[in-house]
Specification:
The chain is mainly α. The chain has one domain (1-71): Histone, subunit A (Orthogonal Bundle), CATH 1.10.20. It is 49% helix and 0% strand. Helix 1 (7-16) crosses helix 2. The chain is flat and about 40 Å long.
Length: 71
């Protein structure tokens, strides 16, 4: 399955997110997403299989709480 993203779709998403992009940036992002999305969707489908249900990430990212000091 081929999934491509157009510059117009990127423009719509960027406008919705209040992210100003130039027209050439829209096209660059569209090309990047068109290349990346098929593999990302395939990985998502694969990892949704029952055999992988118990796999947990090895790294958990957390943000320090407000007022928390870092050593």
């Amino acid at each position: 399955m081929t999934q491509s993203v157009s510059g117009d779709e990127v423009k719509t998403m960027a406008t919705t997110a209040d992210l100003p992009l130039t027209e050439d940036r829209n096209e660059l992002v569209a090309a990047l997403l068109s290349a990346w999305l098929p593999a990302a969707n395939e990985l998502s489908r694969m990892m949704s299989a029952a055999e992988y249900a118990d796999i947990m990430p090895i790294t958990v990212l957390v943000h320090p709480q407000t007022g928390e000091t870092r050593e």
